[in-house]
Amino acid sequence: RKEVEQDPGPFNVPEGATVAFNCTYSNSASQSFFWYRQDCRKEPKLLMSVYSSGNEDGRFTAQLNRASQYISLLIRDSKLSDSATYLCGRNTGFQKLVFGTGTRLLVSP
Amino acid sequence: NAGVTQTPKFQVLKTGQSMTLQCAQDMNHEYMSWYRQDPGMGLRLIHYSVGAGITDQGEVPNGYNVSRSTTEDFPLRLLSAAPSQTSVYFCASNARGGTDTQYFGPGTRLTVL
Asked: CA A20, CA A82: separation in Å to the nearest integer?
């Protein structure tokens, strides 16, 4: 089983919709978690870290559920510009970041 | 600041050839990493470095060598290219402390024939 698993999608949603992705992990000792965004043929960029208490940044909300070993990303009021691949992952400490395969989101007019 | 730069952007090799992918960062970051990204596999860590003179293996190190003689540069060497090494290679750096904020370079698209 992969350390971090994501539904590859694509998730097709209309503008203005709310969409949520989940990401499961297998190592209960994982220290911290994060979401990266990757546009087509571009490098990944950090979207947000995921804290135990959950965190929100504008239209984006990230949650961590340690008991069930998953993290989630909620996007409200989707924009066309949100179309991208979203990578979840965990930071094992000392540089080792482990990524999922990514979930592709397509927002249509 | 240029951030993380990688050269070349594209490369085509024949099986058995060797080459070096260049990576440089101007943010004075202690940590640097190399990843490869393949369809359906996500980003996989090849090698990483926690400072000049210190490197270690990641998840998929076979067929690759690295060295870190300066803080700024972290080249990745393919010793004898194989078709299985066809991939997109990303270099990344981050500041000391295990922060999640890794800054990625624009990537090198490598094809091995």
From this structure: 13
Half-sphere exposure of B63 toward its Cβ, with a 13 Å CA cutoff?
A: 15
Cβ–Cβ gap B41/A44 under 8 Å = no
Count interface pairs A-B at CB distance under 8 A. 53
Distance from CA of A98 to the nearest CA of B (A): 7
With beta carbons under 8 A apart, name residues in chain A contacting B104. Answer: 43-45
CA B56 to CA B70: how far, in whole Å? 16
The encoded tokens of residue B55 equal: 């490197």
CB B47 within 8 A of CB B34: yes
CB-facing half-sphere around the CA of A106: CA atoms within 13 A: 6
Residue spans of alpha helices (H) in B2-106: none
pLDDT, one tens digit for every residue, chain A (109 residues): 678 899 999 999 999 999 999 999 987 676 788 999 999 999 999 999 887 888 999 999 999 988 889 999 999 999 999 999 999 988 877 667 889 999 999 999 9
Q: For strand A84-91 and strand A97-99, is the pairing parallel, antiparallel, or unpaired?
A: antiparallel
The tokens of A55 are what? Answer: 């965190």
Residue positions counted in chain A: 109
Calpha distance A22→A47 (Å, rounded): 15
